[in-house]
C-alpha cells in the first residue's frame, strides 16, 4: 500500500512552525471550510498544510489541486484508514509542531497562536487541544475528555479544568518530536480510539495532556466516520464505528492501565461486554449486533493477547507517572450507564 501521487506545494516553507495535517476521504463538501479556517490563522505564513487523500471517489483531489495549490497533497493508491493517513502526513511534516485536524472541523482565527502559546508554557512537551463546539448550534461539546474506568470518553465541561485524559483527534496538537517518541498511531487501530491511546501513552510518561482556556474549533460531529452523536434525543452510531471503538478501547485498557489493577479491571470489562452485547442483541432483535460488534471485539483481543501483552511491557517500562497521577483524569461513574439513563439504548445502523 503506497502513495500514487505527491503534489508539492507551490512554495514550501523552509522552517514551518506548524504542520497542519488533514486526513481526507470523500470530503469535497467539507474541505473548503476546513482549509479556509487554517489559511485565516494569525501567523499563517509559518504554517505548512498537508492533506492526505485516502483514495477518495469524489472531487476532493481536483478541488485541492485547483483551489488550494499551496497545500502539500498526498494521494493514496488505496483506502488505508485514518491512522495510516495521519502517520504518513506526520512522517512527511517538517514543522516543529503538528496539528492533526479533521476535514469536518474548522478552527477559530486565533486557534494556532493559542495552541503555540500554551505549548510553550507546558512544564514538559505534551499534547494540547482546543474547546470543541458543535457546528450547527455553536454549543460547547467538550473541553477535552476524561475517561471512565473502562476507557469511555467523558466530555469535560469544566472551564477551570485544563488537565484532561485525552484530546479528541479532530484537533490534536503536539510537537513533532513527541509524536516520533510516542511512535504515532498504531496502524492496526485503523480509526477510533487512536487519540485516546496516544494521550494515555503521554500521560504514562508523566507528560501533560491539556485543553486551552480560550479559542476553539467547530466540528461536524460524526460526519467523517458516521455516528457518535445524539439525534432526536437518541444516540446514533454505526456497526463499524462501534466495533472499532470497543476493540480499540479494550486494547488501550490492557496496554496502558498501570500496575496489577489492570487484570481485575480487564476481567470485569470482558464480562460487562458479554452482558452488554447479549442484552442489546436481545432487546434490538438483531443478531448483527453480536456478530458484527461484540463477537469480533472479544475474538480479536483474545487472539491478539500475546502481542498486546508484549506492547504493554514496552509501554509500562517507560512509565513515569504514579498510579494516582495517571488516574487523576479518570471519572468514577461508567459513561455508558450515564448515556443509557439519559438517551436510552443507542440506534445502530
UniProtKB/TrEMBL annotation:
Annotated keywords: Glycosyltransferase, Transferase
Give the residues annotated as coiled coil: none
Report the domain of life of the source organism: Bacteria
* Presence of the UniProt keyword Disulfide bond in the record: no
Q: Tell me, what's a Pfam family for it?
A: Glycos_transf_2
Residues covered by the Glycosyltransferase 2-like domain:
19-123
- Name the protein family: Belongs to the glycosyltransferase 2 family.
Q: What is this protein called?
A: Glycosyltransferase
Species, as recorded: Dyella lipolytica
According to the entry, what is the taxonomic lineage of the organism?
Bacteria, Pseudomonadati, Pseudomonadota, Gammaproteobacteria, Lysobacterales
Amino acid at each position: 500500500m503506497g502513495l500514487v501521487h505527491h503534489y508539492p506545494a507551490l512554495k514550501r516553507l523552509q522552517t514551518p512552525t506548524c504542520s497542519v495535517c488533514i486526513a481526507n476521504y470523500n470530503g469535497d463538501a467539507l474541505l473548503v471550510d476546513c482549509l479556509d479556517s487554517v489559511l485565516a490563522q494569525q501567523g499563517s505564513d509559518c504554517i505548512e498544510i498537508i492533506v492526505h487523500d485516502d483514495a477518495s471517489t469524489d472531487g476532493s483531489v481536483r478541488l485541492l489541486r485547483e483551489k488550494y495549490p499551496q497545500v502539500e497533497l498526498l494521494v493514496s493508491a488505496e483506502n488505508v484508514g485514518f491512522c495510516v493517513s495521519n502517520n504518513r502526513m506526520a512522517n512527511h511534516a517538517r514543522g516543529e509542531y503538528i496539528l492533526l485536524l479533521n476535514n469536518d472541523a474548522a478552527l477559530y482565527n486565533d486557534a494556532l497562536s493559542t495552541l503555540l502559546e500554551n505549548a510553550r508554557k507546558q512544564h514538559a512537551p505534551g499534547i494540547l487541544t482546543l474547546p470543541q463546539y458543535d457546528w450547527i448550534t455553536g454549543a460547547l461539546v467538550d473541553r477535552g475528555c476524561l475517561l471512565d474506568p473502562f476507557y469511555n470518553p467523558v466530555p469535560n465541561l469544566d472551564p477551570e479544568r485544563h488537565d484532561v485524559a485525552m484530546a479528541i483527534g479532530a484537533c490534536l496538537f503536539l510537537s513533532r518530536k513527541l509524536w516520533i517518541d510516542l511512535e504515532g498511531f498504531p496502524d492496526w487501530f485503523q480509526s477510533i480510539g487512536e487519540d485516546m491511546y496516544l494521550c494515555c501513552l503521554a500521560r504514562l510518561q508523566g507528560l501533560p495532556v491539556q485543553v486551552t482556556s480560550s479559542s476553539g474549533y467547530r466540528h461536524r460531529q460524526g460526519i467523517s466516520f458516521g455516528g457518535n452523536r445524539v439525534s432526536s434525543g437518541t444516540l446514533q452510531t454505526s456497526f463499524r464505528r462501534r466495533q472499532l471503538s470497543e476493540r480499540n478501547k479494550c486494547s488501550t485498557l490492557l496496554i496502558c492501565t498501570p500496575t496489577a489493577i489492570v487484570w481485575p479491571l480487564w476481567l470485569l470489562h470482558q464480562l460487562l461486554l458479554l452482558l452488554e452485547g447479549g442484552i442489546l442483541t436481545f432487546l434490538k432483535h438483531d443478531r448483527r449486533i453480536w456478530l458484527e460488534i461484540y463477537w469480533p471485539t472479544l475474538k480479536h483481543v483474545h487472539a491478539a493477547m500475546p502481542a498486546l501483552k508484549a506492547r504493554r511491557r514496552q509501554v509500562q517500562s517507560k512509565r513515569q507517572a504514579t498510579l494516582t497521577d495517571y488516574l487523576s483524569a479518570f471519572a468514577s461513574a461508567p459513561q455508558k450507564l450515564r448515556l443509557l439513563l439519559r438517551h436510552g439504548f443507542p440506534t445502530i445502523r
